[in-house]
Design a protein that fits this description.
- The chain is of the alpha/beta class.
- The chain has a single domain, classed as Vaccinia Virus protein VP39 (Rossmann fold, 3-Layer(aba) Sandwich).
- Helices cover 43% and strands 21% of the residues.
- A seven-stranded mixed β-sheet has the order 3-2-1-4-5-7-6, with helices on both faces.
- Helix 3 runs parallel beside helix 4 and helix 7 runs parallel beside helix 8.
- It is globular.
- The structure holds S-adenosylmethionine.
Length: 211
């Protein structure tokens, strides 16, 4: 399902400042291989959220080849430095991310882990200012029990694909992924410990601040 008009999409993209050539190269790779990165409009938004919250510790769940990681790392660097966890279970994606982030001059800020993201978060010490969830959608609901205690009060949980290409509106779609997105949205928006807003950018970005 097309969620937005072409005109709106290209207008929003035109408002994002020109990116570093390496970020453009990553966008090109994603387009050519149909790899689902967040893209420049959401990337810029993640960067803004990082700057707005002054985040110094960010944990990314399901990181791909490092595109969204780069936006968080740029924000953390401008906030005075800190760490961004890049966690993906594909070894080759982790290796590629290390090369891209190094070329972007951001590698020192990033902790790379090749592992299952929920398990990795559970075993990582300390609280996070931002946790970004972009893992397999059928895992979304169960991941919340691990995420919540790892988020500092006032910190943000940011969840990608909250509109799931419009599949959430299809009442006949009960696939595990679609149900996973629906269930996570229901749980978070009814949890009194969170203040939520679903931002309709690209595939939908759900923001939840822990009270
Ligand atoms: C949607 S892509 C990430 C895109 C990335 N956020 C970006 O915009 O650059 C999700 C990646 O996480 C991996 N993944 C999915 N579920 C995971 C999990 N539970 N643990 C670790 N990696 C996972 C997938 O194999 C895929 O490479």
């Amino acid at each position: 399902m097309e969620l937005y008009s072409e005109q709106l999409v290209s207008y929003l993209e035109s408002l994002v400042p020109e990116r570093h050539p390496v970020l453009q190269e990553m966008e090109q790779r994603a387009a050519e291989t149909r790899f689902p990165i967040v893209g420049p409009v959401v990337g810029q938004f993640l960067y803004l959220l990082t700057r707005l919250t002054g985040a110094r510790r960010v944990f990314e769940m399901g990181s791909g080849f490092g595109y969204s990681t780069a936006w968080f790392a740029m924000g953390v660097r401008e906030n005075g430095g800190g760490e961004v966890y890049h966690v993906v279970w594909d070894e080759s994606l982790s290796r590629d991310a290390q090369v891209y982030l190094s070329r972007l001059g951001l590698k020192e800020l990033v902790r790379f882990h090749v592992s299952e993201a929920v398990a990795q978060l559970q075993q990582t010490e300390g609280l996070f200012d931002i946790i970004f969830n972009d893992i397999n959608k059928e895992q979304y609901p169960d991941s919340l029990a691990v995420i919540k205690p790892k988020l500092r009060r006032g910190g943000l949980l940011v969840v990608d694909n909250a509109l799931w290409h419009g599949a959430i509106f299809d009442e006949s779609d009960h696939s595990p992924a679609t149900e996973g997105v629906r269930q996570l949205t229901r749980i978070l928006t009814h949890d009194p410990d969170f203040i939520c807003s679903l931002i309709p950018l690209r595939d939908g970005v759900l923001i939840a601040q822990r009270r």
